[in-house]
Each structure stands twice: as structure tokens, then as C-alpha cells.
Amino acid sequence: MDSTLPLLILTIPLFMFLFLGLLGGKMSHKLAGTLGTLGMGTVLVLAYTTAFTYFFSGSSEFVNAAGERLQAVIFNQTWLAFTDKLVIKLGFLLDPISAMMLVVITTISFMVHLYSLGYMRDHHGVYERGFQRFYAFLSLFSFSMLGLVVATNIFQMYIFWELVGASSYLLIGFYYTKPSAVSASKKAFIVTRFADLGFLIGILILSYYTGTFDFTALTSIPVDGMADVYQVSEQTALNVKGIFDSAAASTFMGASVMTWALVLIFMGGMGKSAMMPLHIWLPDAMEGPTPVSALIHAATMVVAGVYLVARLFPLYLMEESALEIVTVVGAITAFYAAMVACTQIDIKRVLAFSTISQIAFMMVSLGVARPDFHEGLGYMASMFHLFTHAMFKALLFLGAGALIHAIGSNDYTAMHGLRKHMPITHWTFLIGCLAIAGIIPFSGFFSKDEILSSCLGYSWVAYLWMSMVAGLTAFYMFRLYYLIFWWKEHKTPEGHHAPHDQPWTMSLPLIILAAISCVAGFIPFGKFVTWKGESYDFMAHFDWSVASVSLAVAIIAIALATVMYRKENSLPEKFKNALPNLWRWCHHRFYWDELYQFITHKIIFNCVSRPIAWFDRHIIDGTMDSFATMTNKASEFIRPLQSGQIQYYVWIYLIGALLLGGVTLICLL
Amino acid sequence: MEITAIYYLIPSLIMFCCGVYGFITRRNMIAMLVSLELMLNAVDVNFVVFNRFLFPEQMEGMFFTLFAIAIAAAETAVAIAIIINIFRSTRNVDVRGLNEMKF
Amino acid sequence: MFSNILIYFVVIPLLMLGGLALCRNIKQIRAVAVVGSLALIGLSTYVLLEYLAIRAAGNEEPMLFTGSWTWFAPLHINLAVGVDGISIAMLLLSSIIVFAGSFASWQIPQPKAFFLWLILLSTGVFGFFISIDLFTMFMFYEVALIPMYLLIGVWGSGRKNYSAMKLTLMLMGGSAFLMLGLIGIYYHSSTDSSSLTWNILDIARNASIDKGWQYFLFPMTFVGFGVLGAMFPFHTWSPDGHASAPTAVSMLHAGVLMKLGGYGCFRVAIYLMPQAANDLAWIFLILTGISVVYGAFSACVQTDLKYINSYSSVSHCGLVLFAILMLNTTAMTGAIMQMLSHGLMTALFFALIGMIYGRTHTRDIREMGGMMQIMPYLSVCYVIAGMASLGLPGLSGFVAEMTIFVGSFQQGMTDYLAGHGSLRLVFTIIACCSIVITAVYILRVVGKLLFGPVHNEHHRELTDATWWERLSTATLIVCVAAIGCFPNFFNNLINFTFSPEIFKVLGLN
Fold first, then answer.
1. Of 1.10.287.3510, 3.40.50.2300, 3.20.20.220, 1.25.40.10, which CATH number belongs to B5-94?
2. How far is CA C194 from CA A354, C67, C150, in A?
3. Which of A10, A399, B7, B39 is the most exposed, fewest CB within 10 Å of its CB?
4. pTM of the model as a whole
5. Average pLDDT of the segment spanning A348-364
6. Residue A9 and residue A139: Cα distance in Å, rounded?
7. Which of B20, B25, B96 sits opposite A645 (nearest CB)?
């Protein structure tokens, strides 16, 4: 494939970032917004073309004779050569998941660009301060995210991984005059930075043993015959496999070195994907503008962790203990986040916890995927869920944004009964809720069902656990839905407009995303994205018994939510009073934030940094100063000898002369 | 009784010791100057005496003494001038009080 | 003598000194400073291009443009010059920072005297980097140190006398060790006592310093240069000194002078005494490893902007020495990159701090806030500098740190698996932790200083950057971004230097 198109996909957003960032202040708001959106639109078209070419052209570059989809490196440019072997290259890797991610990112990003044209201005049409900057940052983010998914080597991924972190930081802190936004952005950056430390060390270990950063070389290792699919020479694959085998044998603290490497790399993924216990930044990240939450903290950046594990999936397969850790972390997080989501008041936080929970679904799905069960169904299911989730969660966030825009508050207590005033938002939001709850025929039903099937294939404990979480998901989403759109509406104060639907720039993305959420379930995903690249019939793995059970669970959960929340009644209060401790813990998110606050402020700041600073000023610097003081003291001590009193000198002279004379005399005698 | 060198040297030694003692103990600068002159003159006496008794046919000691007396006169003039100036500015000729220039 | 291009690195500053002496008003002074520093940038760029051309033609000499002129024959003292990739990188860095520093001190009081001392200081710096004769190198080193006393003592702020005295005395203390070391090296520079030499290349070729003496001389020289490189526990001059120094001096000092330390450690201590470096590295690895995290933790709780930045310099410069001690090509390349990167970005930091201080008259972050609303240009620059410091890809900090970490980790693992102990490995991982702590203190400052509501309403009347301030910061930002975006160019420039000479002795990779 010609490298012009992929190159443009990366360079257009970068150029837009530099252009809007440097000159944005000089141009009008409208022009900047339009340019940003047009730029993203171009990228959207290019990315669709690229993905279409990859999946459907049937060129031998992309599909081999056996019908397996291949990894294709479109271009690969040396960026920094550490040694002869360890070279960071910047390139463009096209394979099923990166092509899929290109589609997801550009779609959501374009929707968000369009949506922000309406969202980032108030009811009088006045643009927000820093509108141009907002578009510049969005372009930066799109560039970084696209660079991340097409990375040809793990270090390129790390580079863009850091860049998405930074653009997330900038966008969360977009309202930089608000202290809460500033601290949220800081928290997000530092927590993910901590996770990236693990990622970095993981990369270092992995690259030391395998001697390469290259994904194609790394992932071709474990499975015989994969060298063909991953397009590296058989010899390279064998070499790396040999190193891998011997390294796996050496252990450190009870686990093989490779397990350590993979777990550390997963730690990076945990940070970005907000898995417990590194999830605390994501709910706070909702301080950013809502379109940003939709783009970064729901659809694209937060799934980078899932994408990372999927990208290195063949490696994880070799170290199943690492995959088990992925499963356990995912399962716990999914349940935890769902519990917490049931008690939050801020609608964006409910959605944030729901995002954490859904990403954990994807993680679990990867964790339980095994090649011997339906050809790695879990892998496909995870990617499928990533795709559908991106669409319906972006939809939900953009819907929430429309509500917040109309009401001016994040609290559902300020909303209630909006279904008559905002019909478009209402219907699209409902579609989103149905999709995430897993109601047939909306997209979430299919992807979640695949996940539950693969869980069942792994162990029934996992299946039951995840089904329960799925039920909770349906419950809290409909709780949210009823609390926003039903109940008795608030009286509009005199002189205020009643809340109403938004301009077309905001409605159009909602409608498009809703449409996608309705039909995305019917995409035969197995034909496109599988872990080894072969395509299989999607419906062959569809287990109707699992599907009917989960459908039943979802419907029961929705019914329960309807009973409790459709109208204002005393049931929720009773429920709360029956289990006060559980409610309190959930409402306070199990006190994770307080724990971190304690660790960072009380321990790191007060017990480490301050003592070190004190030690430096008083002990180290004190020692240095005391050398000077000692020298001073010594000179003070001998200074009286130099009194300036001539008589004193004469005394000393006399005594000296007499002594000398005495000595001479004694010597002479 | 023959007058030997020792008859001159002992008074000159006494004179010198008086000078040293005076120089060390007196705090008045005029007194110190006087003590200094005493020492100087004691040395002058020695020069003359040794010249007379050791090398009577040479004159270096004599000349040296004359030279020293001349220098001493000049030096005394300078010293007195300094002392008067100090006294004018500080109303004091006690050396213990004169340490402003030390640091 | 004047046919050698390198000598002009000293001649131009000397001409500038002469020019300054004739200046009558501030405009002429500025003109001399700007023209001179532009000439220096031009010269170093020219040398860089020439160097690359000669290397491309296949010349594999360790140093190019060499020249040597006898100065004092009985003691074999020559004025010997020569450069390799590392020196060229350093010359380029110095000339850029002198240029930016001239603009940063656009409105300094008593400009004539200030620039005279500043240029004298840069004469020393340039002379140091082009010298390959230990004696003249040391002489230029001292020339670079002394003006610092006056620059801080006269134009400084706060406890300037104390700081100037402390800085000068501590660095002089380092020089004392250094001089002892250098004289020791001289007397062992050759097996034949009639052909002793100060020339680095000759000494390295002779390799005649026996192991016992290396054990003595290596710590002497390493500590001597290490003091200037802010090695724990000899770093305490840095916070006080930088806090009191005027802007341009902080820039030059942290940006260039501290690099003299790292450069000297490499060029003298390790280059000439590799065996001792290999055997004694562990002591200094521990010290520098401590520097890295210790500086970062200390920076977390400081409230004075300059103190924060000085401690951050301790951390970053600690990483330079740390990487040099890895004795691994990749890590050492990273060390040089880190010197470049830290030089530019810390100069940028100090320039910005100086500009903010010049407006608000406080450097206490508790008394400021919301600067982004008041002076957006300076604030954006500060964010960029912060991002470079915490290692954002695309800016210089990232490439330098990653090169160091990859190199150190390789070396650490090799050592560990070969049964040489896990010290290097453990300290590499500890050093890696600094990327998190760096993020903590950088974001803390950015959050408190630039973001949030305006803390002091009087600050609302302050103005944003003037054109000369913009020029000064923009120059540095462009350089930081250039290294961050095209690291392989610098990597190759530096990396070549390591291949031929030094590792032959050790038999290391």
C-alpha cells in the first residue's frame, strides 16, 4: 500500500495542532473550529479509505492465500537508534485491530469536533474562552491516539502513550481557572505516569531479553506458524522464541521474568484504562469539557490499555499467569465500578464509573480468551465490545453534555423530567442505555454476549460474576435514565427559557452515533478482527442459551430500576437505610481517593519529601556551612595573636629571643 | 684603674633594658617614643665603644653613630607629628585605644 | 595559530570583551553582545557542519581540528585544542545559551560591567570545551568560575553575598581536588619521565597510569568535577547560588557551567582512567543515584521557584553522572543528550522565572496564581519547559532520559546476569522512579503558579513578554523541540565519539 494516505492520517492532525496552537489566537473562533473539524473530517475519510482497503481489497499485502489477515507495515522510519538492535522507529502498522481502531478514533473524534462547535459556546452563541486552544488540543490528542494505535513497535506506542497522557492532561485542565479542574488534571497525569513507570520497566525487561521493540517480531514468537502471518522471517521468530524460552526459565520473586515484564506492561494499561487500583483519576477527569470526556475518557484513550494487551496478546498467551492477573483485575474492577455507579449523583461520574466497568469487561474478555476455546473468541469479543462501547458510550456522554449544556449542572437532582423538553436527547440517550444494558438488537447486546460466552468457556465463576455485573450495568443506567428524564420536572424560574434541544451541530452527532449503536451489533466482527487473523463466522459462536440468560438478567434489572426510580417514591430511601454501610462505602467510592490522598500527602509529602528537604537544608547544607564556620572559628582563635599592639609583639619577641638564646646556650654548652 | 669596655657597656645595657621595659609597659605614646630613643642611644653608645676599643684606627662606628643620631632625629620628628595628629583626632595618646585601623 | 578554526571560540569572546570596553551606552553594549553571540552560534554551526563532512569522508580520528602550541615548554604545557561530537554539541549548547542569556539580561543595571564579566565567563566555558590539554583546560575552568562570584555578589538578589561566597568556595574546594588529580595525572602521563604530557589524547594513548594511582586519581578528578555537576552531597551550592543569581547568570550557570562538570567527569576521569572508573563506579553510582531521587523529592516541597528548579537540576544532573558511570555506550550517549537537554530546558526555566520575578517581585509560589490569565505567553513557555522536564515525547527530556534508561538497564541486566551484582540494575530502577516524582513537582508548580484563580489582584496589571524576552525563550524552545523531534541526528553525532578509543581499554561493549 502506498504510504501517502497513512502518512497524511498522522500529519494532518499534527499540522492542525501546530497551526491552531500557534496561530489560533489570531483567527476567529468560527474559523478555527471549522478548520479543526474539516481537518478531522479529512482524516476520517482517509482513515475509512485505509481501513476499507485493508479489509476489503484482498490484496496479497493484507490477506494471505489461507484467508488470514496479515500485519502490514506501511512505513517504518528510524527515529532513535539506541543500539544496533534496539531502535525506535516511527511507523504505521496495519492489522485488524489497528484498522478497526482507526475507524473508531476518527469517527468519535470527528463527532466530537462537530459537537464541540455547538457545545463550546453559551446560550447566546458566545464562544468560550480558549475555543481555538480547545481545537488545537483535540487535534493533538487525535494525532497522538492515531499514532498510538498504528505503532509498529512498543516504544513508539510508549511515546504516543505519553503524548495522549499529556493531551488528556491539557484537556482535563481546559478550564484552568477552576481549581478542581487543575487538581483533576494533575491527578490524572500523575496516576497514569506512575502506571507508565511500570510500562517502561516492562518494556526494558522485554527488550533486554528479546533484543527488539518490534511488535511483529515480538508477537510472532509464541505460536508456530505465526511468523507467516506476522510477516517476519522464520529465523527471526525462532531466534526470539529461543531467547524468550530461556528467559522465561529464570525467575525473580517466584514469577518468571517474562511474567514480570508482561504484568508491568499491563500496569501501564491499568493506569490508562483506569483499572483498580489505578482508577481514581478517571472519575475526576470528568472536570474537563464533556466532549473531551466522550472522546478521551470514554471511547478512545481509556481503551488504550485494552489495546495494549490485545496488541501483545500472543505474548500474554505464553505466560498464562499474566493473563490470569488481567482477568482478576478486570473482574474486580468491573464489579467495583458498577457498585459505585449505582450511588453517584453527578451524571458524568455515573458514566465514568460505567466506563471503568465496561473497560474491565474488555479486559476480562482478553484475560479469558484462549485459542482452544472457539479460536480465541474472547479476543474478538473484547475488540467487538471496544468498538460498540466506543459508539454508545460516546453517545451517552455527548447526550449528557447536551443535558449539562441545557441545565448548567452535572447533578441529576437539577434535571428530572426532561423528556418533553429535549426529545432528541431523550431518544438517543435511551438508545444508548438500551445498548449498554444489552437489550437485543442494540449493539451492546451482541458484544457483551460474546464476552459472557467466552467467560463461560473459561470458568463458570467468571460467567456468573460477569453476568451479575451486566445486570448491575442495566440497573444503574436505567436509574440514571429515569432520574434525568422522568420524575416531576422542576419549575422553570420566571424569565428563564425552558431547557430545549440543542443546535444541529450537537444533535447530528447524537443521531449518527445512535444509529450506529442500533446497527453495529450486526457487523460480522469475526470476519474482521480475530487474534490470528483468520476469519470465522460470527454466528457460529453465538450461544443462544447464554444470550437468553443475559437478556433475562438485563430485563429484570431494568424492571427493578423502573420500579424504584420511574417516579419519585420511598423505595430508594428504604433500600439505602436497609444497607447503610454498603451505601456509604459505594457513595464514597470505597474511600480510594481518601486512601491515595493519605498516601500522597501524609506519607510521600510529609514523611518523605519534607524530611529530605529538611535533611538537605540542615544536615547536608549544615555540614557544608559548618566547614566554613569551623574555619572562621579557627581564625577567630588565632586572631588575638595579631593584636596590633606593638608592646604585645615586643613581649613575644623578647620571650622568643630569650628562648632562642637559652636554647643556643644549652646547645653550646 | 684602667677603664675597659665593660665600664661603658654596663650603663648602656642598663639604658637599653630601661628602654625595653619602658617600651613594653608604658601606654603613652610619648613615653614609648622616649623609651625607643633610650634603646637607640644605648645602641649608639655600643657602636662608639666597640669602635674605640676594637678598631681604634678605623672610623666606621663613629660615622654610623652620627648617621643613626641624624636618622633618629628625623624619625622622632615624624613620630611626634603622627602622635600629635592622632591626639588631635582622638584626644588620646594611649595605644590601647588606637585599634580602629586594625580590622 | 589563527589558521585553526577552534581558536576563534576564544578569540571572539576576547574581541567582545574589547568591544565592550569601548562601549559608551547600553545600545552599543547590547549590539556587541548580540553580534558576538550570533557569531559564536554561526561559528559552532560551521564547525558542526565541517565536522560532519569530515566524518562522512571517513575520518576516524578521535578528535578533529586538532592543534597544539607550546606555552611553557619545561612543564610541557601547550595550548592544545581539538573537538569531537561531544564537544561540538557542548559548544553549540553554550553559544545558544549565551545568545539567549544576552536577551534575558536586556535591562540589567550597570550593563557594561555585567556583560564584561559574563563574556569573560563564557570565554572560560568555550576555552574549556575546545581544550584537550589538561592544564589549559583547568585554567579555562577557573576563568569560568571566578566571574560567578562577582556576578552573583553584585547583580544578585536575596542573600547574595552568602550565596556567592558559598558557591565560589565550594567550587574552589572542588578545584583543589581537581588540581591535585590533574597534577597526579600529569606525573603519570607517560612511562618515560622526559616525555610527560598534559594532552588528553596522548595520555589516553599511553594508558600509563597504573591501577594503584588510578584508584587515587579517579576519585580526585571525579569529585572535583562532580562538585560542579551538583553531585550529592556536594550540591548545596546549587540551590542557594541559583536562587541569588541574576537571570542570565542562572541560565549560564545551570545551562552551561554545570555541564562542565559532567563533561569533565567524562573527558578526564573516565576517559583517562577507565579501569578505576569500572572498579570504583559503585561508590559514585550510589551517590548519583541518590542525587536523582533526592533532588526530585526535595523539589516537591520547595516554595521558591528557583529552589524548585535548582533541586530539579540536581536530579537531572545526577542522572548525567549516573549514566556516565554506567560505562555503556548507550547510557553515555544518553548522558550527553541529557546534558544538552537539561542545559536548554533549565536555561529556559531560569529565563522564565527571571521574567516572572521581574514582574511580580516574588518567587514564592504561594503568593502567585493564575498567571496563565495574566501573561499567557510566558505561562505557555513555562508549561512547555515543564513538559520537557518531565519527559514529554517530542521535547528533549524524553529522548535523553529514555536513552539513559535503556542503556543503564541493558548494562544493569548484563552485570546482574554475569554475576557482578545487582547494583546497577537496582539503581536504574530507582532512577526510573524519578520520572514520576518529576511529574509531581512540575505539575505542582504549573498548577499553583499558572492555573487556578488569580491569587493577587495587583498582578492583573502585569504585562506579558516583551520582544526580547520572546526571542530569548523562543530560541530555547525551538532547540528543545529540535532535539526532541530529531534525536537521531544528535545521537549519531555523539555516539560516534564513543566507538573508537575508550572502550578498547575496558573491553566493554
1. 1.10.287.3510
2. 82, 22, 41
3. B7
4. 0.88
5. 90
6. 12
7. B96
